[in-house]
Structure to design on (912 residues):
């Protein structure tokens, strides 16, 4: 019988085929037309866990998309338990016409696998399925106890899992959570993320006249919600990136000198990073470094506006209702509910009586920070070093993984963010891709992590 | 043999059927998918002129949509010549789902005819076809010489007619132009428009990153074109309606005390007007009355924005390119080309180096004013008074009819703006309609105008 790492190496071709099958399922959780596909993806993932040798595999019904649970708990009472989290849902793939290959027909070009969800998060969560499989197929057992909890609403607010966690503390009880849904710095520079930003998402509608009006007949006498939207957006954040909502920064935990020094060591190649974005230049708060702005500072961004006439050519319309989507990325210790309230109060103060504003809440989640001295973090460092041949760096990530804060709050456990994506993966954008060597090294890292954490 | 007015009265049923047939042709000139329909509308209108007894009827090819020309020139050398202008093209009908009846299936409810183009301008230009028909069918002749020039690009910039006029001064030579493409104040209060605003329309694209980016990974480090668009819009016009583009007001001819007094006499029922718009309140420059703001002051309005993710739910994207449509309504003596240059220079000064801006020119036209003491204006007053039973008021209109300035410039003639629309017609919006009694009174007004102007 071979060892898990040799087994995993010998089965890489099959792993890729399986991942492609997973990626062909368009499990877009925010789009109701894909609800059937999302259910198919849940079942597919549950079957994969069963095939891998996991036990008690089940789909847990929720008001929206099912959770997938599985465990293997025969490592002994002294062995620690890890709770592996991931998500089987994906972002919408629009705009479709910018994809060079179809988003739900996974395509390998050079060392990359192109598909919506390839890196975020199907390709990453599947690493751990293959790691436990490699152990169970070769050793017949795992070095530690393992639980999986995988959701289908990460890209649409995660409400079902948020409700499930506090009501199922025993089922989910563990010593540490393990999440692979982040990026490392570069193909050969592993990184452990110890901080994540939180999120406060708001949908906003502004209404002026009761119907679209002719701007010649009514312009100058009726206020225009698109013009007012411009004033609101300009009022929310200055041109340097400083958010202008009163109280927005009140609870922001200042960066310590020690942490700024740690972040300053990150080997970020700023010009390569910029080239990847295609933007004319980097930008942001002048008093903070780029690394700090990307991970350790709160932001406010407009993600979408639609209003008035948007077809070809011109039309001289005073629009009735216009729509905007705005989010704020939060840092410790900002409170998403409080930030939402400050946002809405401030926007209401900017809206004149000639316009009506309504809000619809998007998802909210606090930021999180994990102490990087704990044993599981040390096990992750060893595992990364052995799989990648290089010591991982410690960093903060700008994205949001709300569940990390919820594990902390309800299960009392820290999370190891063991990412295998790259900053160049184009997640949430057309032509999302996944660096395949990281998929295979990820499986090795996960195998090594299970062993190392078992020794602690 | 009956007289023209009796003849017109007896044929109202047929006139309505004919107008409905005209309105069924979706001649949307800005949308290439309707180019075929627009050609059909041109031919339909030419045939209607031939049926009415007009001579030399022809379609004149242009790079885009044909012009329709016709004349009847047998009134004698001493008789004046009127050049009747109108347009057979219509605005786009989007958003379709807000129409209560199909936009291209004309529907009569109470006294209104609902259809795209019912009031703007098919239902108005057709008045004059029926007026000349009534004369020619009863008297066998017209009291004055009449020419028609009707275009198919009024809603898409009017470039073809703009190019045609200076090259065909003899063909179009006349003593006065007659245009029915404006509104009167209320069903029983006719009005003569002596001033029109001009237009400067700009399409603008802002590009930040080379592709859509994830706002978690890149937010705070890359500038967002939607946020920058907000700053630009806020920078273009203040919250009171004052345009902030340097030099914008430099050439604005101040309103004289005499004209302010004239405009103050307009019987505008402000609360009824507001109720019709459905807006919470009227709005605009505090130093000007509502009537002045609507007709005699320049404006700036955003007509459409599309950018980022606009589908259902949320998506955390930093968009690559966003699009905005903006126009400025101009007053005498603002110059559209100069205003466009001031706009672009100012916007460039607002755009940071982290964002690229590109402009695409929409249509431009100067504002116009007609002297209301000339004989044709007096003939129009008499004709309106007889048809409506009430003396018309004199007013300025906020819309733009670029051809009026071009007739002035190249043919050296003033224009009588003899409107039969109403402010409640919802032109350019869903559920456009036309008050049918005005259609019939309009035909009577046109018949009376031809007679009165012949006496001068």
């Amino acid at each position: 019988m071979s060892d898990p790492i040799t087994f995993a190496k010998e089965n890489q071709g099959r792993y890729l085929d399986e991942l492609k099958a997973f990626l062909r399922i368009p499990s877009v959780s925010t789009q109701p037309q894909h609800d059937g596909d999302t259910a198919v993806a849940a079942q597919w993932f549950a079957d994969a866990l069963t095939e891998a040798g996991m036990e008690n595999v089940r789909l847990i019904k929720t008001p929206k998309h099912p959770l997938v649970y599985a465990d293997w708990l025969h490592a002994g009472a002294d062995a620690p338990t890890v709770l592996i989290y991931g998500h089987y849902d994906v972002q919408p793939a629009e705009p479709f016409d910018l994809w060079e290959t179809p988003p739900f027909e996974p395509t390998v070009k050079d060392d990359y696998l192109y598909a919506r969800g390839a890196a975020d998060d199907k390709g990453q969560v599947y690493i751990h399925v293959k790691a436990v499989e490699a152990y169970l197929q070769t050793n017949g057992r795992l070095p530690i106890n393992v639980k999986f909890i995988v959701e289908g609403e990460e890209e649409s607010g995660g409400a079902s899992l948020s409700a499930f966690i506090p009501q199922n503390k025993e089922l989910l009880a563990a010593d540490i959570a393990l999440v692979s849904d982040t990026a490392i710095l570069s193909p050969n520079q592993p990184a452990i993320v110890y901080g994540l930003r939180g999120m406060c998402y708001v949908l906003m509608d502004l209404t002026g006249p009761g119907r679209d009006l002719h701007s010649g007949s009514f312009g100058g006498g009726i206020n225009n919600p698109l013009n007012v939207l411009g004033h609101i957006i300009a009022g929310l954040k200055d041109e340097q990136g400083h958010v202008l909502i009163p109280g927005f920064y009140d609870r922001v935990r200042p960066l310590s000198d020690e942490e700024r020094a740690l972040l300053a060591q990150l080997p970020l190649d700023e010009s390569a990073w910029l080239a990847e974005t295609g933007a004319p230049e980097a930008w942001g708060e002048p008093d903070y470094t780029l690394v700090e702005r990307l991970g350790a500072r709160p932001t406010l961004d407009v993600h979408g506006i639609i209003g008035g006439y948007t077809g070809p050519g011109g039309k001289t319309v005073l629009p009735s209702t216009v729509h905007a989507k705005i989010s704020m990325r939060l840092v410790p210790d900002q409170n998403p509910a409080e930030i939402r309230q400050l946002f809405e109060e401030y926007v209401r103060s900017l809206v004149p009586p000639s316009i009506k504003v309504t809000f619809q809440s998007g998802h909210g989640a606090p930021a999180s920070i994990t102490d990087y001295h704990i044993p599981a973090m040390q096990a992750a460092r060893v595992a990364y070093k052995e799989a990648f041949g290089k010591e991982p760096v410690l960093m903060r990530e700008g994205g949001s993984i709300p569940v990390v804060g919820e594990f902390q709050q309800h299960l009392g456990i820290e999370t190891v963010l063991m990412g295998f994506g790259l900053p160049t993966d184009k997640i949430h954008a057309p032509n999302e891709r996944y660096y395949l060597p990281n998929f295979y090294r990820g499986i090795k890292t996960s195998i090594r992590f299970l062993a190392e954490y078992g020794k602690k």
User: Anything to note?
Assistant: Chain A has two domains: 4-196+367-455, 201-263+295-364. The mean pLDDT of chain A is 95. The longest helix of chain A spans residues 118-138.
